[in-house]
Amino acid sequence: MSSKKFRAAIINVTGYAGSELARILHLHPDIQVVSMTGRSAAGKRLSDVFPHLWPCDGPITEQVEGDVDIVFSALPHAASAEACAPFVRAGLPVVDLSADFRLKDREEFESWYRVTHPAPDLLASAVYGLPELHRDEIRAAKLVASPGCYPTGAILALAPVVRAGLVGSDLIVDSKSGVSGAGRSLDIKYHFGEMDESVAAYGLGGHRHQPEMRQELGALREGPPPIVTFVPHLIPMVRGILTTAYATLDLAKLGSDPAAEVRALYEDAYAGEPFARVVPAPPQTKHTSGSNHCLLYPTVDVRAGRLIVVAALDNLVKGAAGQATQAANLMLGLPETAGLGAIAAYP
Amino acid sequence: MSSKKFRAAIINVTGYAGSELARILHLHPDIQVVSMTGRSAAGKRLSDVFPHLWPCDGPITEQVEGDVDIVFSALPHAASAEACAPFVRAGLPVVDLSADFRLKDREEFESWYRVTHPAPDLLASAVYGLPELHRDEIRAAKLVASPGCYPTGAILALAPVVRAGLVGSDLIVDSKSGVSGAGRSLDIKYHFGEMDESVAAYGLGGHRHQPEMRQELGALREGPPPIVTFVPHLIPMVRGILTTAYATLDLAKLGSDPAAEVRALYEDAYAGEPFARVVPAPPQTKHTSGSNHCLLYPTVDVRAGRLIVVAALDNLVKGAAGQATQAANLMLGLPETAGLGAIAAYP
Amino acid sequence: MSSKKFRAAIINVTGYAGSELARILHLHPDIQVVSMTGRSAAGKRLSDVFPHLWPCDGPITEQVEGDVDIVFSALPHAASAEACAPFVRAGLPVVDLSADFRLKDREEFESWYRVTHPAPDLLASAVYGLPELHRDEIRAAKLVASPGCYPTGAILALAPVVRAGLVGSDLIVDSKSGVSGAGRSLDIKYHFGEMDESVAAYGLGGHRHQPEMRQELGALREGPPPIVTFVPHLIPMVRGILTTAYATLDLAKLGSDPAAEVRALYEDAYAGEPFARVVPAPPQTKHTSGSNHCLLYPTVDVRAGRLIVVAALDNLVKGAAGQATQAANLMLGLPETAGLGAIAAYP
Amino acid sequence: MSSKKFRAAIINVTGYAGSELARILHLHPDIQVVSMTGRSAAGKRLSDVFPHLWPCDGPITEQVEGDVDIVFSALPHAASAEACAPFVRAGLPVVDLSADFRLKDREEFESWYRVTHPAPDLLASAVYGLPELHRDEIRAAKLVASPGCYPTGAILALAPVVRAGLVGSDLIVDSKSGVSGAGRSLDIKYHFGEMDESVAAYGLGGHRHQPEMRQELGALREGPPPIVTFVPHLIPMVRGILTTAYATLDLAKLGSDPAAEVRALYEDAYAGEPFARVVPAPPQTKHTSGSNHCLLYPTVDVRAGRLIVVAALDNLVKGAAGQATQAANLMLGLPETAGLGAIAAYP
Question: Is the confidence metric ipTM above 0.85 for this complex?
Answer without folding.
Answer: yes
